[in-house]
Amino acid sequence: MVSTLEHFLGESCGVRLRGFLPVSAFARFSRNFFRYRFGAESLLRSNQVESGMYKKNTTLFVTLAAFFSSLAAFLQIDGSNRTAEHTHAGMLASAQLFLKELGPGMLDRATYPFESDERFNWHYIPRSRRGVPIKFMTAKQREAAFALLQSALSDQGYEKATGIIQLEAVLRELEGRGLGDTFRDPDLYYFTIFGTPSTDAPWGWRVEGHHLSLNFSSATEELVAATPAFMGANPAEVPEGPLKGWRALEEEEVLARDLLNALGPSQRSMAIISKSAPSDIITGASRKARIGIPEGLSASEMTDTQKAQLMHLVKVYIRNNGDRLANAQLERIEQAEVEKLHFAWAGDAESGRAHYYRIHGPTLLIEYDNTRNNANHIHTVVRDLDNDFGEDILRMHYEQSEHR
User: Residue 101 in 3-state DSSP?
Assistant: First the structure.
């Protein structure tokens, strides 16, 4: 099938497919086809594309991405036999395999000591980064990298992460950038390992690029932290072309607005803390999230139905993680924090207007901001106010180790 497509594209478009190039599961056709993305960059460099045969917002790239994702589903290339177990053991094995596939030539670039300050050097803007980018990986290395990502996330989390990565190609086209542009590049997402993946000592890893920064920390046999966890989407809703209407982070917006609209007048006046929204998440890319005391409407002032809506929204974020860690996080919240959670909104309540919200409790902070690009540019982050980067649990681990 692929060779036939190569021949067709070569004869019809004067271009060819090359190797593997992850194409995300556009329109949710096939989440695991991301590892098998065809060479869209080669397609985009064809003379016909350069001459404008495929014009802005109806590009060959986007059309082929959707087509190949559909094809993957048709061929059942769903990676089900590769799905890593959503446990520390699955993540550990995936990390070890990834390092093995990298080999000596790339290990220096991919690995840092666990105690390195680089572990805390995270951000969500386009910038130079440490680690190994997808662009420099072979097909087997890419497969191992995305298997590692899949091992740490739920199906919904993996789908969001890969969708965010692929939005870079959409954004590049919407902004009218050249085909060789690297400012918006779905291949410039970096994988970095901290420490040596094992059950004997703490280790961690990060995947990061524009609008995505996921940080995982392990203390021997347990995955103890998956924060900071940043996900963003630009455009939040694709405005034109074959993917018009696609929203990578739809629930994060819709469910929060539903909760706001479910509040009574007095509750709403407590929840809305400002008529104008901040231009970004308040905690930014700080190593330690500091935001002051909780503001807005306390869950203790909500009805049972409203509390259920609030927890549904919380779960949208927490269940991006694999089941074991997500369940542990939710158990802690449900046992000790629900009544202490606060829901705060800033900006306009109307869809399509600038707005911001946060959910803030004793240890949990979720921020969401949609103010840029005419309120079509989402930033979200989940922070653990006690245990970002696993620092609290890792501190206890070191203290216990010293007394053995």
Answer: helix
